[in-house]
Write a structure and sequence with these properties.
270 residues; mainly alpha; globular; single chain
Length: 270
């Protein structure tokens, strides 16, 4: 998120999404000869992972990067960490599961945290209220992707293959969208320093998805997601100690302290 935030000083979120998907796809294809077997392409898991690529990372990354532009990396990461809440809601609505006390408690905490962020104060908010939907939408699509990934890994237990198929499909979509936009606007992506930040962020994202898929293949979604939900803490300290770019208000700090335990309650209660 911090690398992407630096890149957004030079380009828009769509360009950043394309470059980071390209970087991650290159990483996966370079690693493919050492990890993949031809037989993987003949399984139904290819379809599952390809479906994931239709909305993650292209759509979810676009929403997340747009959130970074409007809200900053820490607040975006905080709201995006509500993915376990959406995972629980998917389980209730699609699988017929019921709310457990931890899920209910975590939901209340998360809703209160978001309400705290959206409550008008004495001074005008530095971000539009609708921008809060950007990281929340990214969280919803990522939660759906976690469930699909776990399903596909049950047939082909190779986390690199899941990332390679999904990112390749997303890359095709991103290239098509960018080419169409370039024709309409009679412009192309030009070199600027922000491309390096986006590319570096894409490599990091590629390794993170590879690591996440590996964890999903070894354990359950509800045991992996709580650890992932701690990312706002890392974002906070990176922004504070390394990048020194964000202003951390009391409201943002309180929301972090509420959202993190809230998503953990949701995860352990599903």
């Amino acid at each position: 998120m911090q690398f992407q935030n630096l890149g957004l000083r030079y380009a828009d979120s769509r360009t950043g999404t394309l470059i980071q998907i390209l970087a991650a796809s290159m990483l996966y294809w370079l690693m493919a000869p050492w990890f993949l077997h031809k037989a993987y392409w003949l399984t139904s898991a290819v379809v599952v992972f390809a479906v994931i690529g239709l909305f993650r990372p292209f759509l979810s990354a676009n929403l997340a990067l747009a959130g970074v532009r409007h809200l900053g990396p820490t607040l975006t990461t905080t709201l995006a960490s509500t993915a376990p809440l959406f995972a629980a809601l998917f389980a209730v609505t699609l699988l017929g599961e019921s709310f457990t006390p931890p899920v209910l408690a975590g939901t209340v905490v998360i809703v209160f945290a978001i309400a705290l962020l959206t409550r008008p104060g004495k001074t005008k908010a530095v971000w539009p209220l609708w921008a809060l939907l950007l990281p929340l939408g990214a969280a919803a699509f990522r939660a759906l992707g976690h469930a699909f990934t776990k399903y596909g890994l049950d047939e082909v237990p190779e986390p690199l293959f899941a990332g390679l198929v999904g990112y390749t499909v997303s890359l095709v979509i991103a290239l098509t969208t960018t080419a169409s936009r370039a024709r309409r606007q009679a412009s192309m992506i030009r070199w600027h320093p922000g491309l390096l930040w986006f590319f570096g962020g894409g490599i990091i994202n590629g390794f993170s998805i590879w690591s996440l898929n590996t964890a999903l293949g070894m354990g359950s979604v509800v045991s992996v997601v709580p650890i992932v939900s701690l990312s706002p803490i890392f974002s906070f300290f990176l922004g504070l100690l390394v990048f020194r770019r964000e202003t951390f208000t009391v409201r943002i700090m309180v929301s972090i302290l509420l959202v993190v335990p809230g998503v953990i309650l949701v995860s352990i209660g599903t």
